[in-house]
Amino acid sequence: MVIKIGKESIEVQDRKAHAAALEFVEVKEEIDALNAKLKTLKETLAHAAEAILDGSDTQTLTYMVEEDVGVKVAFGWDIKIADKEALEEKLGDRFADLVSVKVEYRPQPKLKEMALEDDAVASCFAIKPKAPAVSVVK
Q1: By residue range, what is the domain housing residue 33?
Q2: Measured distance CA(41)–CA(13) in Å, rounded
Q3: How far apart are CA 128 and CA 74, in angstroms?
Q4: What is the tens place of the pLDDT at every residue in 68-92?
Q5: Most exposed residue of 14, 77, 115, 117, measured as fewest CB within 10 angstroms of its CB?
Q6: Bridge partners of 4?
Q7: How far apart are CA 134 and CA 21, in angstroms?
Q8: What is the pLDDT of residue 137?
Q9: Could you report the per-residue pLDDT of 97-123, keeping only the tens digit for each?
Q10: Which residues touch 12 (CB under 8 Å, ≥6 apart)?
Q11: Three-state secondary structure call for residue 114
């Protein structure tokens, strides 16, 4: 099996890794096909549920396919504040009670590099290895 590291290629004899790579490609293709089928089924069920719930205050229904097995369809909304100032003006003193503020600090790529190389800076971070990303390349 040929292994590419950067721009270099090397030949490696590892039957387990070769077999795992071949099977990974096959399983990934099967999963992708099933995900496409699942998406179509979800759309069909959601469309039918929408028609059934038309005019109802209820936003959830369950298709019972067997006595103790069903498929639940739940509708909802993603609500985000688009105009903070206008909302603050309309809510007045209640704004602080009804709105939560989230502040998030994210390191830029250069700071991430520094955190991995400089122990003084690294002490300011929680650093743990990520799970390896594995994907099919075509």
Answers
A1: 1-76
A2: 43
A3: 36
A4: 999 999 999 999 999 999 999 999 9
A5: 77
A6: 9
A7: 10
A8: 86
A9: 999 999 999 999 999 999 999 888 989
A10: 1, 2, 3
A11: helix
